[in-house]
Amino acid sequence: MEIPYTDKARPDTGLFNAKVGIWLFLASEIMLFGALFSAYILLRVGADPGTWPQGLLNIPIGTFNTAVLITSSVTVVLGWASLKMGNFGAYRKYQAITILCALGFLGIKSFEYKDKWTHYEVWKTDGTRMTGHIEGSPWFWKTETLTKLKLESIKFTPDATHYNDPKTHAADAKADHGTAHKEAVEIKTSEIKRLSAFVPAHSTFFAIYFTITALHGLHVLCGALVIAYILGPGAKMWKTNPEQYMNRVEVSGLFWHFVDLVWIFLFPVVYLL
Amino acid sequence: MSDAHSHEDIKKHVRTYIVIFIALLVGTGITVGLYFVHFENFAVTVAVALFVATIKASLVAAFFMHLIAEKKAIYAMLSVTVFFFAAMMYLIVWSRGQLPLGSEYGPTKYIPHPTASGGSY
After folding, report:
1. What is the structure's pLDDT at A29?
2. Residue B33, burial from CB neighbour count under 10 angstroms (0-12, 13-18, 19+)
3. Which of A72, A215, B2, B115 is deepest in the core (most CB within 10 A)?
4. Buried-exposed string A82-105: b where 16+ CB fall within 10 A, e elsewhere
């Protein structure tokens, strides 16, 4: 049985099946990301000064990643335009750039994640708090790790400022993106009330930061896989049914633009507010 | 994306895509630039950041996703989405004001009314 309207548009709606499908899917995605965004903004606006871990994300890297994703969006649409003009070679080049951009984006994001997993906050028993790095840059340490490893003390390099002092911390973050450090200090394990890397368990901010950015990253990965499939093994269809092939490219492109669109909101909200 | 495009039409579109690409990069620069501007009211900071993001997103949706010239069925589908999205946003913002009678957000933590019983908010 032949499925109708896979390559030609339905006369009444003027749309082929996949296009209706992708827009319905994108509508559900808007609600999904919308719920997460609104949760983030509500928590952020409701946070008292000094309680929101602000200025801990690397803005130049985030800006660069934004440019990478915008570039991939334009190469997707240029690839589709090339295909419409019958230039399959140009289409392949543009889509190859798109996939490279997607891999670049994910690589940079992984670097950012790793940076967070080796960055710590220490809550001391005397009430003082500091953020910084433990000697050797271990991953995922928590309070229990100190007992498990039977450590009597840790060597800690504190950041120049802490986010619970919003004025100095904001100035520090804007001047050098929070990379300035103080001299390393020895902290006794008995003086540590809580130790946490910048992981979801650290705070509400990191919980929602990792949820949204990881979900977005998953979309980037899936989008890149679909584009790669259409470009690679799926390209045989260009010879047998070019109309349906162009529809597939268009639909994958719509998904990719949506991924870009989400990041356009994510970047200022998560990195800058 | 309408189905009947001449090569000339597509070439015109390509020029538009390049212009939009540059506009998006400029928009990103403006977003980062605004980070260094200090607004007294935090709500203004949020509003400005979202305003710039909305303009950029509109450019992507209108030109890259071709919503500027789409079929009516797509617009109908998106109208329903916009309605429910707006309703969801409204409900979430509205919920912030829904505290038990006599309670208020304190300077550092939620302070329950003395007569409020059980559970945490």
Report:
1. 97
2. exposed
3. A72
4. bbbbeeeeebbebbebbbebbbbb
* Shortest distance, CA A24 to any CA of chain B (angstroms): 7
| Residue A171 burial (CB count, 10 A) | 13
Please name the amino acid found at residue A96: A
Where are the extended beta strands (E) located within chain B? 104-105, 110-111
Q: Between chains, do A34 and B20 touch, taking CB under 8 Å as contact?
A: no
**Does the interface ipTM go beyond 0.90?**
no
> Are both A124 and A178 inside the same structural domain?
yes
Clarify whether residues B65 and B100 are in a common domain.
no
Q: Do A213 and A105 lie in a common domain?
A: yes
Indicate whether A142 and A250 sit together in one domain: no
Q: Note down the domain range covering B29.
A: 1-69
Q: Please give the backbone phi and psi of residue B94, each rounded to the nearest 5 degrees, phi first.
A: -60, -40
pTM here is 0.88
Closest in B60, B77, B89 to A264, CB measured: B60
Q: State whether A94 and A219 are in the same domain.
A: yes
Stretch among A27-36, A197-206, B34-43 having the lowest mean pLDDT: B34-43
- CA closest to A67 among chain B residues: B25
Q: Per the CB < 8 Å rule, is B17 touching A14?
A: no
